[in-house]
Amino acid sequence: MALLPTEDRRRAREDRRRAPRYKAHLSLQVLAVAGHAVDCSGQTLDIGVGGVRFNIANKLPVGETILYLVTRPGGSSTAGIQCTGKILRCTMKCNSHYHEVVATVESSVVVTKDELRRLVSDAELSCTANRGAKTDIGTCFLSLL
Looking at the domain assignment, is residue 3 inside a domain? Predict the structure, then answer.
């Protein structure tokens, strides 16, 4: 049995998931990183109870706390999911101007359309904001599809 290089072993450990991920192309907007307001958006590649993988133009700092919002593409959402987590990986994709980011989902909250507008326009968000009814992201993200 051949041993994997150190980087491959580390990545293999990080990629072990406790819950399944589902392919989903949803809009994702990063609202804050490490407690500082930011405004950048991307698209999810897959999502699950414990994490999300998405493409984004901006490089994000690995290990930092992230606050992000997941909604239906096209801005016609009546609700969205506000999540907090930790950035596990951010790699530049070959032949692309996007970074592929993997982040955990440590908490998630369903927010209404009015709250979505406020979240998107409010630059002074707290990573511990608590809006809407708490729920499991795995059960509510499917309603966005």
Answer: no
The neighbouring-strand residues paired with 66 are 33, 85
- Report the C-alpha gap between 6 and 66 in whole angstroms: 27
60-83 pLDDT tens trace = 999 999 999 998 877 666 788 999
Q: Which amino acid is at 108?
A: S
Dihedral pair phi/psi, residue 13, rounded to 5°: -65, -45
- Quickly list H helices, the chain: 6-15, 113-121, 137-140
Q: Is residue 2 part of a domain?
A: no
- Residue 79 DSSP SS3: strand
By residue range, what is the domain housing residue 57?
19-144
User: Which CATH number covers residue 122?
Assistant: 2.40.10.220
Q: What is the pTM of this model?
A: 0.70
Tens of pLDDT along 89-127?
999 988 888 999 999 999 999 888 777 667 666 533 333
Please report the DSSP string for 80-91 in residue order. Answer: EEEEEEEEEEEE
